[in-house]
Amino acid sequence: MSFSGSCEDRLAVRELYGIYSDAAMRQDRDLYLSCWADDGVRISRDAEIQGKSAIGERWDAI
Question: Superkingdom of the source (predicted)?
Answer without folding.
Answer: Bacteria
